[in-house]
Amino acid sequence: MGRLLLLLGLALRSLRHRPAQTALLLVTVTTVCATVTTGLTLRDSVGQSYAEVRAATDGPDVLAMPTSTGERALRELDPLLDLPGVTARGGPYPVLFPMIEAHGMTVRAVVEGRDPVPDAIDRPQLLAGDWVSPGGVVVERAFALALGVRTGDRLTIGGEGFTVTGVARTAASSPYPRAVWSPQGGGPSPHAGQVWLTGDDLLRLSSDALPVSYVAHLRLAEPERAEEFVRSPAVLAVPVTVRSWEFFAANASGNLRGVHDALTAAGWLLVVLASAAASSLVAGRLAEQGRRVGLLKAVGASPAMVAAVLLAEYLAVALVAGPAGLLLGCRFAAVFSNPGGGLPDVGLAAPSVGTVVAVAVLALAIAAGAAAGPAWRAAQRSTARALADAARPPRGRSAVDRVARRLPVPLMLGLRLAARRPRRALLTAVTVFTVTAALAAALTFRAQPVRPRDLGGSLLPDPDALLVQRIVAGSVALVIALAVVGAVSLAWNAALDARHSLAVTRTLGATPGQANRALVLAQLLPALPAAALGAPAGAGLYGLLHAGPMAAAGPGPADSALLVAGTLLGLAAVTAVPARVDTHRPVHVVLAGARR
Predict the structure, then answer these.
(1) Lowest mean pLDDT segment, chosen from 179-188, 426-435, 502-511
(2) Which residues, in sequence order, are bridge partners of residue 195?
(3) Residues 6+ apart with CB under 8 A from 372
(4) 3-class DSSP state for residue 269?
(5) Is 123 left (phi over 0), alpha (psi -120 to 50) or beta?
(6) Going by C-beta distance under 8 Å and a sequence separation of 6 or more, which residues neighbour residue 438?
(7) What digits encode the pLDDT tens for the residues 261-271?
(8) pLDDT tens across 345-396, in order?
(9) Other beta carbons less than 10 A from residue 219's beta carbon
(10) Bridge partners of 197?
């Protein structure tokens, strides 16, 4: 117990003494955990969200809609209503398929007639206002958001004006733009919005040009077997379109496929970037703790104890970042689970056990994976060398040195610095490859033709596509932010590592500007092939998620070249700042510090 308390005390003391690096590492791991939690929670919550709507509205087990109109539609429904297994029914309710006008837009709508008193089956849940009344209309929430209407606004249906009295959601129909449009025997087509009127108002709007059809809601003795009921020979023999509640639940899940794919891809890209950024942050922290390692070993700490002390710092960060990421991810999932307004907010519902385990393992893996190797190598250094905190001696001559001698001074020094630290060069390449792939995937997404929803007279935005666009924009911002953190950390580590050798080089005639450019080139050399490979990899990533003709368009060669050039210029700009700060220190100050 005493050794454990000592470990915790030393770890917390070190974290307090380096708040900036601790905060960067905490934010990095928390961001990745939040993104992964959002994707996993969204996957788990979609079915639960539809179930909540169905329970709150007493949704039907089966919905039946004939493709004919008038008395013929009622005759087609009659055999279905008395089939074995049907225990209750709602309706048949009259239905019209008119065009409605709102705010200068003309769109298709499914208008269902209801009584002012809600029925036992399918009672749409009001989110604002009141239920239907004479002269009033209730609009499905996703449709209301697309039209920009709220309670008190006016809609024109079949040439007659109505006041919006309420906004509601239902489990008996898919939200906009997937309400079932089936006019005058034309067959079902999911490209409309849903509204409700009183039965008398709806019948008053009907005419020979706008005939009435009907819809019935059925309750089954075995709701869990609703899909089997729909596919039974007795139901298939009836000329009626029949949908089970399982169909609407699957439809709700399918609506979020683009959201889930975007979050999954962003999560994996951020995991790679976070691992690289964490590795560079940890390497920088441990490089500054050489004397601390020596002091611990001087007072009797074993190498295993020293490694445990250094590793405990980052595990402590992971223990904070994991729960924080879970909390933020559940909050984000509440927004992403409701792209069109047809599903309820997930809120701060507890994530599944699998999600908690996955996020905890991820946080610990990022922290431990970044710190385990450097901590063990630092603990293996001799006590005298650790107390002296001397620079790492250069390796012997290599083929790179023989090639570098013929190059200009900045390029010669940069090539030698890159070859001297292959692990750092690999981290730089991984960071640049990932950020270039992410940007290329985003450009490919933006290059796809915009396809608004055609609902008859007017085009309305696709709510799913708009949400995916926001997710892509946010993911790109997170990727760039983590890439900047990783690039700055790598550049600062390279400057610290090369400080003494570049100071000696300056005494032999190199200028501060040449030393500065050498550090920048040391980062750009491994980044150049990584960026060249990342651009096609990003387009390929988008193609994997969206195979088919929808993914035919993509950025051209000029756009890809600009992307690669922009990424490299951004890396050079980010690297130049810490490089300039370090290479413009007076030579005598650097060498005097090395002697001490």
Answers:
(1) 179-188
(2) 111, 139
(3) 311
(4) helix
(5) beta
(6) 266, 269, 475, 476, 479, 538
(7) 777 777 778 77
(8) 444 456 778 888 888 888 888 877 777 766 666 666 666 555 555 555 555 5
(9) 19
(10) 113
Structure tokens at 234: 């007795």
- Over residues 222-245, the mean pLDDT reads 85
pLDDT at 491: 79
Number of other residues whose CB lies within 10 A of the CB of residue 224? 10
Q: Collapse the DSSP code of 494 into the 3-class scheme (helix H, G, I; strand E, B; otherwise coil) and give the result.
A: helix
Specify the pairing of strand 136-140 against strand 160-169.
Answer: parallel
CA angle 198, 199, 204 (to 5 degrees): 100
Three-state DSSP class for 110? Answer: strand
Q: Does residue 185 surpass a pLDDT of 50?
A: no
Pairing of strands 136-140, 105-114: unpaired
Judge contact between 62 and 226, C-beta under 8 A: yes
| 66 DSSP β-pair partners | 240
pTM of the model: 0.67
| Identity of the amino acid at 171 | A
Contacts of residue 587, defined as CB under 8 A and 6 or more positions apart, other chains included, come to 503, 506, 507
CA distance 362 to 382: 33
Q: For the chain, what is the radius of gyration of the CA atoms?
A: 32
Least trusted range by pLDDT, from 55-59, 203-207, 260-264: 260-264
How many Cβ atoms from other residues are within 10 Å of residue 82's Cβ? 8
231: tokens are 């596919």
**Those residues with Cβ within 8 angstroms of residue 18's Cβ, 6 or more apart along the chain or in another chain:** 285, 288
